[in-house]
């Protein structure tokens, strides 16, 4: 599955454009412009353990909550 197809599957939206983004030493980073507006930051690498990215996403949501860190 292509990266674009994986982003579309994960977001439920078509990808209008996808380009490499800077940053990170372990993962490849991309930015995606989604159909209907909005953007997504995408990280990938071939050997990522199952559950790594969903776990990171949950931690980032927690950090974004009021009172998430203190």
How does this model look, in words?
This protein has 70 residues and is α+β, with helices and mostly antiparallel strands. The protein has helices at residues 3-11, 52-64, and strands at 15-20, 28-34, 39-44. A three-stranded antiparallel beta sheet has the order 1-2-3, covered by helices on one side. It starts with a helix and ends in a 6-residue tail after the last helix.
Q: For this entry, what is the oligomeric state of its chains?
A: single chain
Count of helix runs: 2
Shape: globular
For the largest beta-sheet, the strand count, sense and barrel status come to: 3 strands, antiparallel
Computed structural class? alpha+beta
Distance between the termini: 41 Å
* Average residue pLDDT: 91
Taking pLDDT < 50 over at least 5 consecutive residues as the criterion, the unreliable ranges are none
Instruction: List the helices and strands in order.
Output: HEEEH
Portion of residues in beta strands equals 25-35%
**Proportion of helical residues:** 25-40%
Quick one: how many beta strands? 3
Comma- or semicolon-separated keywords:
three-stranded antiparallel sheet, alpha+beta, 70 residues, 2 helices
SSE topology sketch:
Elements: H1 3-11, E1 15-20, E2 28-34, E3 39-44, H2 52-64
Antiparallel strand pairs: 1-2, 2-3
Summed up, what is this model?
By secondary structure, the protein is of the alpha+beta class. Helix content is 31%, strand content 27%.
């Amino acid at each position: 599955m292509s990266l674009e197809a994986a982003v579309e599957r994960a977001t439920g939206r078509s990808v209008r454009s996808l380009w490499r983004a800077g940053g990170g030493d372990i993962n490849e980073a991309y930015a995606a412009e989604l159909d209907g507006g909005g953007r997504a930051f995408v990280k990938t690498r071939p050997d990522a353990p199952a559950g790594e990215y969903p776990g990171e996403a949950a931690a980032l949501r927690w950090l974004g909550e009021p009172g998430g860190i203190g």
